[in-house]
Amino acid sequence: MYIIIVGVENITAELSYSLNSQGHEVFVIDNDLEKIKNLQEEQGLSIGQYIDTTSKDSLIEIGIERAERLIAVSASDAINLTVCQLAKSIMVENMNFKCIAVVNEPKNHYLFELNEIDIVANQVDLLVSYIANAIPSHPILRLMPLPNSQELICVKIPTSGVINNKLISEIILPYGSSIVLIIDIDGKNKEITDTTKIISGDEVILIVNLNAINEVWNLLTELR
Amino acid sequence: MKIVITNINKLTLDLANFLSNESEKNEVILISDKKEYLHKNLKNNIKVLNIKNDIISTIINSDINPDIIICNFDNNYENNIVAQSILAGEKNVKVYLLVSDDSLLDLYKNTENITVININKVINNLLIKTISQEQ
Known about the structure:
A: 224 residues, Rossmann fold, Alpha-Beta Plaits, 5-stranded antiparallel β-sheet, elongated, B: 135 residues, alpha/beta, 6-stranded parallel β-sheet, 6 strands, globular
């Protein structure tokens, strides 16, 4: 598929190389001529072009109408949001077209959601969850953003956790949160009923509202 | 009426003077990241704010509380993020985006308090009209 990447940043070279290797046609655009030149030195002239990324005409010029994905990874949330809005307005009738945007400032996340950008990757959140996941005493894994300000997360139940040996019916989750899957320590899927017991080492996968992630995390990992 | 104008240049300075002359009740605040305009002789009801970082956050979150914001950043994305922040905050502010192409026109065609003005188009139309009148 034809994929447009907006912004030459730390991840761009690896991302374009990786997508190219998978057989996709990748084209990188940036407002900064020097950045594009550097990328062209690494991956060849045809990898990208210096254009005004937030100009509708420029996007049409580089063939956005035949693209199936636009990935905005620039260091500016204003650019990422604007280019995604413009792309969606051009591609309004193409149901296969999806916009993926990186958010650099967590406070801007809601603007991307308000504009219904298909996939929003919050850099800071991802890093925080990665670091948190690397600390065994407080494990959480943010698996996937979902529509309507929800997220799919995975929490590993700690050995000396308050929740250990409790029945699902005894656990009061925040409004809008629900357990969708429990994988036990042997990697087996547990049946979810009111009488299912949560045991230390279980990995609990839940759908939660973004604003309830910390609450769910604290509830499931609170130590005795 | 309190009017905030971003990005000081010849156009916005003239605009500030025009608006301040229109009514003494108009309070015009020019915002720029450059210091060169701080000591410029301006009328009493025109203020210049020098803000180095994050002009957009200053406009949106400060207690300036403008009735009108006129955005004249050099690019679409900075103008757009002001409009988006105003829409998301549901603030009762009228926003004019002075831009140099039609890219943002479609995004705000159904939005009552955001108006996109393509300056190049306005000037072109004026020139064409003037030339055709002379002929």
